[in-house]
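Session log. Operator J.P. requested a structure for one protein chain; no other inputs attached. Running the standard single-chain path with token output.
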Amino acid sequence: MSNQLQANSGNSFASRFGAIMSMTGMCVGMGSVWRFPYMVGQYGGGSFIVAYIVSIIVIVLPLALVECGVGKGMQKGMIGVFTDALKNRVAGRAVGLLCSLGYFTMNFFYYVVMAASVYFIYSSATSEWDKVAPADIYPIFSENKALIAVISVVLVVATIWVIIKGVDAGIEKMSKIMIPLMFLFFIAVIFFGIFCIDGIQEGYNWYLQPDWAMLAKPEVWVAAISQALFAVGVGPGCVLIYGSHLKKTSDVTLSMTTVCLLTGAVGIIVGMAMIPACIAMGLNPASGSMLIYEIIPTLLSRIPFGALIGVLLFTAIFFAGFSSAIAQSEVVIATFATDLHWGRKKAGCIFGAINVVAAAWAAYSEGFYNFWNDFSGN
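Structure written below.
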């Protein structure tokens, strides 16, 4: 144990606030800001929100407390944890490698999704919808494979740079900036909507008032539980790895409870920033995965200060995605750096190089993108 603690000595969160922001950034990703709004639209607005809150408190929080507690207590990567748990070196290494590498493969396709959020910051700033039909902006962008590949590779390099700098000087420092700004930008978008969109009260009524009959439908609960598990990320190993970066004196219950509640709040706030406005403008909130890239630009083109609101909205979405991309790489890098004694720089460079190739490949190959989306995303 002493060797593991020494290996982790420079890789602990420096403060409780930094730990909570980093762990919230780990949880809040494209699942919360991209998936949650259209899930609300498809499953009854306020009814889905009630089921989602119950799922986080009753199911996800206890699991997250256990996983984070194991990480803090053992101070090891995935290989070390499973080796101790299974009391077998070969089996522990096999399972630990499977979990850490499997989780890392999410980044093979994830950066292509993130690239769109980066482009839409530019698209909003330039009011591109004045030149192109709003619903056509994403299809046109998706055909520009070279641009998607360049953005994706730059994001991979930025991710690895943050991770190599270490937990306190890299991940924590970045999260203490991005996560508060993410909350601030989403809340600013909500205020703009309240004062600038006529009839938005109707949208809030639909979004916040549950249809209790919907809660009797099993599919609503299945969707809410799945979204809650997906949003917080219990199971794949990220909660365990970030728990291993907590100091021995840290309060796991307080930290993880705060993180779960903040993660749930982000989804609800993101929905408030998008869904009521769509309802008020007569747009379909149940339009599926293309809600933020096709419906939202249409909304922004019709409202006052649409360009400013779009910049804030898509910057907040990018912050959420980037912080989760860091976590998806940190799981495997921390595991190899600690358990196999590679060191953070060596592990970061090797897995960064792999991810550069994969991200560029996913940008050009729909088949490659779909395979890894199905394999690791689903």
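Operator note: The mean pLDDT is 89.
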